[in-house]
Amino acid sequence: MREPSRLRQPVLDWYSENARDLPWRRPDATPWGVLVSEIMLQQTPVARVLPIWTDWMARWPTPGHLAAQPPGEAVRHWGRLGYPRRALRLHGCAQAIEAHHGGVVPSDYATLRALPGIGDYTAAAVASFAYGGSHAVLDTNVRRVLARAVQGDEYPPNSTTAAERKLAEALIPPLGAARWAVAVMELGALVCTARAPRCADCPITAQCAWRLAGKPAYEGPARKGQTYAGTDRQCRGRLLAVLRQAHGPVPKAALDVVWHDPVQRERALDGLLADGLAEALDGDTFQLPA
DNA sequence: AAGACGTGGCG
DNA sequence: TCGCCAAGTCT
């Protein structure tokens, strides 16, 4: 990018006019609120996160509040957000923050990155959005916008490459890195979408390499389609739903009725136990982890 | 390093 | 209808 500002300024101006009013973006949002939102937003649409986040923050307004609860309560109030191991990891974050960081969400990337469930993206996002840090924030939205606008490809590579990271870092403005990061993400989420991009509403359509090339179809390897019906994942979801709603010990018979195949059912239950999402009181009774 | 890991809405 | 996709992380 010879002139990063050719890309940045229009996106920043667009964001000023089109940013959604999300609670974790408001001035009164705490670093804890930002961290909670980022974990919840992993692979999960904003609309589904909103009500869970609101309930969660009212219930546990600080890491200390959550850390004082058994992990099963985090899993219970995670509801049907999906990927419930995130609830366990968020609980782990709260405990680590209490035990090792004085109850304060860390502000530097490396410390955040060491917390459970916090990878490259989330560490960069929390450091940027909660503390105004300057990092390359590479999520699926940003990767797609850069793939199109700069590389001229419809989609980014299947996994993040060094080239993508280098490009993202080159685009970080000297001032206002966090606002730039959230602005590109928002553009990817609202306009430069995966399926049917709204190029007519795009602030950088004039300089978008992909559009200028005539929107050539994606050529890379097919992205892995995720099946769900009939999988262990679906089975685990059914079993965990029973435990979540139970508010107490659940006899095995109550789990047996939600999945027909006993082999798969046993495997899924063992998986939940191994993951710490459930625990056995005895051989025949189960509950969320206390 | 490919695959596991939830769930539901949309085109 | 049904496959694709959503602010990824971990092993």
Written account of the structure:
There is one protein chain. This protein is mainly α and 290 residues long. It has three domains: 1-18 and 135-221, Endonuclease Iii, domain 2, CATH 1.10.1670; 30-129, Hypothetical protein, domain 2 (Endonuclease III, domain 1); 232-287, no CATH class. The chain has helices at 4-18, 31-41, 46-59, 63-67, 71-78, 85-100, 109-113, 120-129, 140-151, 162-171, 177-190, 209-212, 232-246, 252-256, 262-275; strands spanning 250-251, 279-282, 285-287. A three-stranded antiparallel β-sheet has the order 1-3-2. Helix 5 (71-78) crosses helix 6 (85-100). It is globular. The mean pLDDT is 96. The structure holds a DNA duplex (11 and 11 nucleotides).
Radius of gyration: 21 Å
Distance between the termini: 53 Å
| Low-pLDDT segments, ≥5 res | none
**Distinct helical segment count:** 15
CATH architecture of the largest domain: Orthogonal Bundle
Helical content band: 40-55%
| SS class | mainly alpha
At the first level of CATH, the class of the largest domain is Mainly Alpha
Percentage of residues in strands:
under 5%
Q: Strands of the biggest beta sheet: in what spatial order? A: 1-3-2
CATH topology of the largest domain: Endonuclease Iii, domain 2
Order of helices and strands: HHHHHHHHHHHHHEHHEE
Tell me the count of domains: 3
Overall morphology: globular
Total DSSP E strands:
3
The CATH homologous superfamily name of the largest domain equals Helix-hairpin-Helix base-excision DNA repair enzymes (C-terminal)
Describe the largest sheet.
3 strands, antiparallel
> Could you tell me the mean pLDDT?
96
GO molecular function: 4 iron, 4 sulfur cluster binding; 8-oxo-7,8-dihydroguanine DNA N-glycosylase activity; adenine/guanine mispair binding; metal ion binding; oxidized purine DNA binding; purine-specific mismatch base pair DNA N-glycosylase activity
Cofactor: [4Fe-4S] cluster
Enzyme class: hydrolase
Catalytic activity: Hydrolyzes free adenine bases from 7,8-dihydro-8-oxoguanine:adenine mismatched double-stranded DNA, leaving an apurinic site
